[in-house]
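so the lab meeting is tmrw and i was supposed to have these ready like two days ago... anyway. pasting both below. for each one the top line is the aa sequence and the line under it is the C-alpha cells. i havent really looked at them closely yet so no promises
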Amino acid sequence: MWSALEYACHVRDVHDAHHLHDIGAGTNDKAVLFDVDGVLVDSYAAYRRIWSRWADHRNLDPDLVWSHTHGRRPVDTIQAVAPQLDAAAEYSLIREFMANEGDGFPVYPDAAAVLRLLQNRRWGVVTSGRTPTVLQRLRAGGLPDPPVLVDSSQVRRGKPDPEGYLRAAQLLDVPAPDCLVIEDAPAGVEAARTAGMTVVAVRTTHRDDELAGAHHRVDTLSDTVPLISGWLEGRTHEPGNRTTR
C-alpha cells in the first residue's frame, strides 16, 4: 500500500486527466461506483472464450486460468498462472484475441435505466480494463461516459487491492465510507470492503457463497435500484452481516 502522502500526491497528479466531464453534485454528496465487466457490460462469454484460447495456446489448464481472471487485471492473471512468461507480451496476445470478438461485449439491458438514476450525481467506474476499450463498449451500448473512470493503467496494484476504489473516491471528492460499490467478483468485493465502502454484489458471474463478503447481494443490476436510490437519499446503510436477497 502507498503511504498517505504518496497516495495524495499521486492523486493530485492524475486528478485532471481522469475527469471525463464536470460533476455537478455538491461536495458532500454520496457516490456510487461500478465495476464494468459483469456489472454494466455482459462480457462473461467473450472473456471465457478469450482466456480459454490463450490457455490452450500456452498449454495451460483453461479452468485454472479462468479462476484467476475475475475482477483482476490481465497482467495480474498472467503473472499468477504463468510467471515464467512475459506478462506484457502475453497481454498483447490476449488483446489480439479480444479484437477478434468484435461486438461480443454488450451492455446489460438494465444498465441505462440504472445510470439514469445518477444524472447530476457523483458516480464513476473502477475497472481492470483500459479506458479506450471501456468507453468504446459503454458508448456502443448507449451508456454515458462516467464522470470518473479509474482503469488498470492508473493503479500500481489491481483488485483485490483497494487502490482503484480509493482513487475514484478521491477524484469524486467523496470520503470512501460515502461510496456505494456495485461489483460482481470476489476480488472487487474485497477491494471495496478494504477501502471502507459499502458493497452490493450482483450475482451475474459468481455464486452467492463466493460473494459472501458483500453487504448486499442481488440477482440483477435492476435489483440495485432501490439500494442506489436509498443510498443517495441516505436510507441505505451498511447492514452488518445482513444480506439483501
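ok protien two:
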Amino acid sequence: MINKQQSNTEELIQEATEQQSVTKSRGQVHKELAMGFFRAGILGFGGGPTAIPLMKKEVVDNYGFMDSDEFAKQIAIGNTLPGPIATKLAGSIGFQVAGWLGMLNAIFASMLPSAILMIVLLGTLAKYREVGWVNGMTNGVVPIVGVMMAVLTWEFFTKANKQLGLKLAIPLLIASIVAMEVLGIHPGIVIAILLFLAFALPVKGAKA
C-alpha cells in the first residue's frame, strides 16, 4: 500500500515537472509577444490589412497564443470598433495573453519600430520617389500582399463552411460583398449585423 502511494506520488511529481517545463515563463511570453508583433508591424506594408496575415502567422502558427478560430473572432470584433485594426489586434491579443503589460508590450512592438523607420525613411523616399527602383520597390509589394490576403480569406471561408455549411456561407459572402462594394456600407456595420444575425442562425453540426 505504501509502495503504491509512493509510486502515485512520484508520478504526480513527474507530471508536475513536465508541465512546468512546457509552461512558458512570463519573460518568455513577453519576449515572444514583442518579437511577433515587431515582425508583423515592421513587415506589414500598406497598413493594417496587410499586417493581419503576418499577425496570424506569429500569433497562431509560430507561438500558438490562440487558434485560428479565436484569431478570426478577434478580427471580427476589432472591425466593429473605431481605430486601426492592427493596433486593436495587438492590444487585444497582448492583453489576452499577458494582461495589461502584454497589451502595452504588443502595441509598443507593433507601432514604435515602424513609426521610427517611417520618420527616418520618409525624407529619403520623398526625395527619390520619382526614381524607378523606389517605385518598383513599393509597387512590388502589392502582389505579395494580395496573395497573403487571399490565403487568409480562403482559410476564413473554409472555417465558415465547416461551421455554417455552403448554403449559408455563400449567401453571406455574396451579401457582404454587395453591401460593402456595391452599396458602400462600412465593413464594421456589416460585421455588426452578421454578429447579430449569428445568434439566430443554426450552426452546422450543433445539437438541437
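from a quick look at the 2nd one: The first helix runs from residue 2 to 22. The chain has eight helices and no strands. will dig more after coffe
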